């Protein structure tokens, strides 16, 4: 067992300079069958750079992280994770967010 602190919302709030991970969700169009798999796109020192990479890609997301913090052992929602094109969906569950994104796609001419 490691002795590193565990990443959570409190660690993120206390960090003056988080890093930003950009990932690509696999199977974002299928909320019911999405199993949480994603691919690494990049790691950035600023939110602006991460947003620039993720913007315009429906299947990309940005997740802040605090250096030298380990992920919790249990599966949890990623604190602060978002998509720069769909900031209104941030407070939703993953399934609700995917449904909201699908509705936005349909509403966009």
**Overall tally of domains:** 1
DSSP summary: helix tally: 3
Q: Give me the secondary-structure category.
A: alpha+beta
Relative strand content: 15-25%
Report, as a whole number of angstroms, the end-to-end distance.
52 Å
Shape: globular
Share of residues in helices: 25-40%
The strand count comes to: 3
Can you describe what's shown?
This protein is α+β, with helices and mostly antiparallel strands. It has one domain. It has helices spanning 9-14, 47-54, 94-107; strands spanning 19-25, 38-44, 60-65. The model has no long low-confidence stretch (mean pLDDT 80).
SSE blueprint:
Blueprint: H1 9-14, E1 19-25, E2 38-44, H2 47-54, E3 60-65, H3 94-107
Antiparallel strand pairs: 1-2, 1-3
Supply database-style keywords:
3 helices, 109 residues, alpha+beta, globular, three-stranded antiparallel sheet
